[in-house]
């Protein structure tokens, strides 16, 4: 994560404005106890993976020749990362749950990049020390898992799952429980197979009102599935949309409500939820992704897929007529898109399994250059032996406009008659792709190859990437 360079406390003019309302205040020291100039900021937890320059709070440092301190205004109660950057020290991020009283009297000692001798704890506050350690472990696992997904490597999470389960069972502090619970459930999105019992225990520590959902709100549905609580998820999602204290989390829950209404074809509900997202939550990440679910342009089941006419990579004409009589997965992707790359094993598996039944794939590349595609497909593990079209990165391409493309991968399942059979992205990714294809083939009375083994419960796919 790239840091925002906040104004250093040592450089702030003495006549700093008085901070009104709740604040976070404290001092930064070296490991030897000497004052240390640093840049300090608050990052809303739900924005921990986006640009700090857009989302962080500017420091109103309080200068002092003896002790360079900091005083940060709390925009509103909620879960934040207290972000500390000092020259010669490792970045420090501590989850802090802030209320109307703020947080005062902090004494922090960032760890040196090149330690000499024993390294002291970052603070004498045991609660903050534990929160920092748990979050650091959470980030390390997440980075390891995403790197493995990108490299198409498997990670053995057994030791992590066992350790987290034991810690969660033994922990008595509610805030530490929240971080541990999110850490356990988040492994599901990184390829781990969770214990239903421990997943259920983690969910018990994370009610709809928990601020800790801001750490990874996109895993809500998959977490309920892992715990065997699918029937309870809709009620939980609706409660999150009403009761969670984090605006971004609430907005995402509303987005999921909108996606569910789209699946059901409930146009009145779709219009009401879309209006809420684009007005009440218009500045959230979920609202920016809601364009693809615009009720006036919704790619819902039964709607004709937009007409197109392309040349494929071999120079042949490609249109909807090309796939007449076939069940086709239209997939917008790019070689630079890590979630797209993560989908490749499953796409190759379903193509090999269902091609004989009349299933096809049309890949539409958003790469910067057409020359990027061939080296990617030269890998023996991802030949992508289906139809390919190069769109490029022109955001004004008619087909991109027609499907309201905002993120990739963006798969859409189109029937033999050119009408959409499944338009919701999350139902066409990961293990859910097999389920949706089989359902469509059965509805079309098209032959389905008999499964060799019973399928496992679907796992949550990687997060989508913004379309460029």
Physical arrangement of strands within the biggest beta sheet: 11-10-9-13-14
Q: Please name the fourth-level CATH homologous superfamily of the largest domain.
A: Glutaredoxin
Query: Could you say which structural class the secondary elements and strand pairing correspond to?
Result: alpha+beta
Instruction: Please state the oligomeric state of the protein chains shown.
Output: single chain
Mean of all residue-level pLDDT scores: 85
CATH topology of the largest domain: Glutaredoxin
Strand content range:
15-25%
CATH architectural group of the largest domain? 3-Layer(aba) Sandwich
Number of strands: 15
**Rg calc:** 25 Å
Number of helices: 14
What would your notes on this structure say?
- This protein is α+β, with helices and mostly antiparallel strands.
- The protein has three domains: 9-124, Carboxypeptidase-like, regulatory domain (Immunoglobulin-like, Sandwich); 136-245, no CATH class; 309-466, Glutaredoxin (3-Layer(aba) Sandwich), CATH 3.40.30.10.
- The chain is 34% helix and 16% strand.
- The chain is built from 14 helices and 15 strands.
- The chain has helices at 52-55, 126-150, 158-170, 174-186, 196-204, 220-226, 230-243, 247-264, 267-279, 285-289, 338-354, 373-377, 398-402, 431-443, and strands at 23-28, 39-44, 69-73, 78-85, 92-98, 103-108, 309-311, 317-319, 327-333, 359-365, 387-390, 407-408, 410-414, 420-422, 465-466.
- Strands 11-10-9-13-14 form a five-stranded mixed sheet, with helices on one face. It has a three-stranded mixed sheet with strand order 3-1-6, with no helix packed on it. The protein has a three-stranded antiparallel sheet with strand order 2-4-5.
- It is elongated and about 75 Å long.
- The two termini are 20 Å apart.
- The model is unreliable at 1-17 and 53-65 (pLDDT under 50).
